[in-house]
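in:
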């Protein structure tokens, strides 16, 4: 070995070209890699531009080939910057097969991490020599925090000129003016709620809280069905109930049939037809369940999100029922643990550019108040859950409490409230919906 250490190269042009070539050869490879790689993972600027164009084609549901890729680059005005059509042909012919595309991607990611680590080392050296950074102990602590961030695979944010967000904003405004309608994310299935929170917006984390028996799961599966009816895939993580229990509620809600009919009791021919009709309507919906165990954590969520994205060709909207039962690695006190869990769930769903909807228990203390409507600080174990949420709503049914006070059965049809307690980009308010207890479903109330 020479007097100095041999240096590991911090990039692999061959691996980057192999990744791009695989995406041209295989649609499946392209859809998988879009969820795994970021533009900044590529070292060569031309490769970044090509990958960005490929991602745009996949987002539009179009095939990647030399014709569509060239057209996309021409439209963006950057074909000369990548080396023209000759370089695109070179990439297309670089690999004979896309069979090893995941191995190529791992090399690209590994080199990116090495570059991040080198950058981190430079920051730590600067920290050591910074007279304003405190004592040696302070600097050790700060360096440790920097290493923890690097171990989580966090990427350095790239500069984003204001022109990018400005174009996005004006495009949304123009579309709204053309259609005469406000531009929402994916509809929650409740138009009145959409007007307040703009639907399920990609990148947002929505927190839904309620006391026991208020209908968290019914709201969740009902909203999931409404999302899936729009052609948007859904990943429904059920931790407390089995997938079959949740599906029974779905059948009851879709078919307008009593929940008990789904539990194997003998039915007459007419009622049996209602059940089978509901099942047929549900079968065609793009809903996948994860029947999670006690070990289900953020890593499992990311893995399942990746698989579902591959299956459907786009990231699904995620429902987690419910957050307090998710597994966490740390042993810190529960409030801090849940806050970090919510943050990690939000970061994970945001990295897939989809919406995460997490369900949470509401503290028992609300039952002792005269006004039992939940407030922002009532989320069980940790108000930090709401701090991490972009939108926080609570479910409330006054009939539930009146029936308990009067020692009687609940009215099967009553009014429920969806209370918007936090809305980072809009107003607060309360939406009244119908509660149909026999069918375990919420329904929009006609104006």
């Amino acid at each position: 070995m020479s007097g100095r250490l041999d240096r590991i190269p911090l990039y692999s042009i061959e691996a980057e070209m192999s990744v791009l070539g695989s995406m041209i050869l295989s649609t499946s490879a392209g859809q998988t890699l879009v969820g795994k790689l970021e533009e900044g993972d590529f070292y060569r600027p031309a490769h970044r531009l090509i990958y960005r164009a490929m991602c745009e084609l996949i987002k539009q549901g179009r095939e990647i080939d030399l014709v569509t890729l060239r057209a996309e680059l021409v439209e963006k005005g950057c074909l000369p910057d990548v080396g023209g059509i000759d370089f695109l042909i070179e990439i297309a012919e670089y690999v004979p097969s896309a069979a090893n595309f995941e191995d190529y991607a791992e090399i690209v990611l590994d080199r990116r991490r090495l570059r991040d680590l080198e950058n981190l080392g430079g920051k730590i050296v600067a920290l050591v020599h910074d007279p304003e950074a405190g004592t040696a102990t302070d600097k050790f602590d700060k360096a440790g925090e920097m290493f923890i961030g690097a171990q989580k695979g966090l990427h350095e944010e790239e500069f984003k000129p204001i022109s990018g967000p400005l174009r996005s904003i004006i495009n949304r405004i123009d579309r709204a003016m053309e259609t005469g309608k406000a531009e929402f994310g994916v509809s929650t299935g409740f138009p009145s709620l959409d007007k307040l929170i703009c639907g399920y917006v990609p990148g947002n984390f929505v927190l839904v809280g309620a006391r026991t028996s208020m209908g968290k799961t019914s709201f969740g599966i009902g909203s999931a069905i409404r999302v899936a009816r729009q052609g948007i895939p859904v990943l429904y993580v059920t931790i407390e109930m089995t997938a079959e229990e949740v599906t029974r509620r779905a059948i009851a809600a879709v078919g307008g049939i009593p929940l008990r009919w789904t539990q194997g009791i003998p039915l007459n021919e007419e009622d049996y037809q209602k059940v089978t009709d509901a099942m047929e309507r549900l079968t065609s919906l793009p809903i996948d369940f994860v029947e999670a165990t006690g070990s289900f954590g953020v890593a499992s969520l990311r893995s399942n999100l990746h698989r579902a994205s591959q299956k459907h060709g786009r990231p699904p909207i995620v429902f987690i029922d419910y957050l307090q039962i998710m597994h966490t690695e740390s042993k810190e006190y529960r409030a801090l643990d849940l806050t970090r869990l919510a943050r990690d769930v939000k970061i994970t769903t945001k990295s897939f550019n989809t919406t995460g909807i997490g369900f949470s228990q509401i503290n028992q203390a609300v039952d002792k108040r005269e006004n039992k409507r939940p407030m922002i600080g009532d989320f069980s174990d940790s108000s930090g859950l709401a701090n991490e949420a972009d939108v926080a709503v609570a479910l409330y049914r006054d009939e539930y409490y009146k029936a308990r006070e009067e020692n009687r059965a609940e009215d099967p049809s009553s009014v429920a409230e969806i209370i918007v307690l936090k809305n980072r980009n809009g107003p607060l308010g309360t939406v009244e919906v119908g509660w149909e207890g026999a069918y375990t479903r919420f329904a929009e109330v006609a104006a």
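note: The chain has a mean pLDDT of 83.
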